């Protein structure tokens, strides 16, 4: 069998190509959905940079998967990673969880010796399962998305959760995040690792069916990522034994010796310590999310709806001033009401085939772009909703009613929240 790291490299590169293809409008054709750069300096970047960077990224990923030369692999992997950075900076909407994960995998493989790269990728994957599970131990998940998941899963058996006792509903819903956390812990230990791999693969396949066209009908990128995750956990952890936790086994290390030796003058070993530090930091950084210092998706808050968000409300007389593609996503807040809620999330899915980036910073920037394009200096209400309390789901709400006030608010964020011009 080929070296494990080579299979992982090919899987990472092919996954990047497939997922970008499934969400191609996010990378190549942002119109009419606004772009919110990650850094203020990128607000004036010319739009022609984006499709060029995306094309270079895809070509580099395909080359990294195909070439045999270690030197060319390193160059191609580095090029793909650098292109992703440019694309992230140009629009933080592209910080999709799968794209963020793949970026760090590219860094590990490009900058580290094979055994070290495997070790750091394994740590990253354990972190994803762990913090994804922790993020769902939350009131909002239990009573919204989690309940939908439970109903969909039970419905696939021809049954219904109607009539279930509330205690049973809560316990059954909490089994989803508890299962993810159990997988993360079990992957660390040799004795439980095989069972954890099988459980993780089963979980992703169940999600693939549950979220697919016969279930909740989510976007293709979500379905592909579940298949990618099932494949990756098998490649990384299957038949990894011994007491080294998520570290590479002796067998892994021995099988990678030829590659490691051939990399001795090619893999830039002076970059390995920096890459290891960055990957370790990224794996631990989700600890900062509850304090507001790290973004929800980057902390692997997947299907965990406690994130901060905005709610844009306008009068029905202003609907015709909205972008044409957005008008159908403006719905009355109540029967007979003249106030419409502008559903920016549905607009994102409609335009780009991805959910909106789940931070109030980003969503407020999108709202500002819409208001500027529609020439609505006032006559709207923007509700800035904080992340919800994990115990009771409550949020604090700040209301903004004119563009000048909104711009002042957006300038307070550490990362950019202003739309790209």
Automatic annotation (TrEMBL):
Residues annotated as transmembrane: 7-28, 48-67, 74-90, 102-129, 167-189, 196-216, 222-240
Keyword Transmembrane helix (UniProt): yes
Keywords, in A-Z order: Membrane, Transmembrane, Transmembrane helix
Official protein name in the record: Uncharacterized protein
